[in-house]
Amino acid sequence: MQILNLSLQPKNAPATTLTAYLPDLVEPKPRQAIVICPGGGYAFVSPREGEPIALTFAAQGMATFVLDYAIAPVHYPIALRQLAEAMKMVRSHADEWQLTQIFVCGFSAGGHLAASLGTQYDQPVLADYDSAIIRPDGMLLAYPVITGAIAHRDSFTNLLGSGDAEDQSLENQVTAQTPPTFIWTTADDQTVPAMNSLLFVEALQQAGVEVEFHLFPHGRHGMSLGTDWVNEDQGVPHATSWPQLFLDWVKVTFN
């Protein structure tokens, strides 16, 4: 496997790093890619939701990328512009790395960032990008922050400073052109209530966008893979199925 640290230089945003995990190909064949945005409430970028996720999907043959995006006191739309630049870079190497679809993935506040790209790729905030290049082919959202109505307040404060959380409530920004989406969360999540995901699922259905949603009954916020390995021996075994459920969804939806 090749591991590359790629430098991103987005316009009107600080430089940052995109870490690529490129599995060796036994024989040349197209493969899918996923750009991962770890969580952290826009206050930090959680390592538990970066490399472990990248390695899990790389083991299945996907090219994976982890974005080290801007956090507070830097505010919207800087992280979004960095993610757009990451998508642009990955797509620009699609022939070299033999990539087909490129997905965006996010956990918690990283889920908000990923879904922001999926709903704002063609909006004025990213008007200097080619929307066809930065639009994700699909989204994977894990216990995402979505709405100011039932907000994880710290995430919106860190994202916006004094701005209005309703302006970045993403259930209000879904259109028929929003990419197909896979979402999972847990009913026990007390940090980012499951209603965040439910509101986004409802908006996707109303817009006619394909969506698969899994609500696991148990599990704390920030479970990552759900395994003991990343949860300090407090994993939730039945929730560890989500990566395979996502891969099955990808096969059905995109192959």
Task: Provide structural commentary.
- The chain is α/β, with parallel strands linked by helices.
- It is built from 8 helices and 8 strands.
- A hairpin with a 7-residue loop joins strand 1 and strand 2.
- Helix 2 packs across helix 4.
- The longest helix is centred in the middle third of the chain and has 15 residues.
- The chain is globular and about 50 Å long.
From the spread of the alpha carbons, the general shape counts as: globular
Largest sheet: 8 strands, mixed
Query: Count the strands?
Result: 8
- Percent strand: 15-25%
- Main structural class: alpha/beta
Give the N-terminus to C-terminus distance in angstroms.
24 Å
Helical stretch tally? 8
Radius of gyration: 17 Å
Strand order, sheet with most strands: 1-2-4-3-5-6-7-8
Order of helices and strands: EEEHEHHEHHEHEHEH
Helical residue percent? 25-40%
Uncertain residue ranges: none
Mean pLDDT: 94
Summed up:
With about 260 residues, the protein is an alpha/beta fold.
Which properties best describe this structure?
single chain; 255 residues; alpha/beta; eight-stranded mixed sheet; 8 helices; 8 strands
Strand and helix layout:
Blueprint: E1 2-8, E2 16-22, E3 31-37, H1 51-58, E4 63-68, H2 78-92, H3 94-97, E5 99-107, H4 109-120, H5 131-134, E6 138-142, H6 153-160, E7 181-186, H7 195-207, E8 211-216, H8 242-254
Parallel strand pairs: 3-4, 3-5, 5-6, 6-7, 7-8
Antiparallel strand pairs: 1-2, 2-4
Helix pairs in contact: 2-4
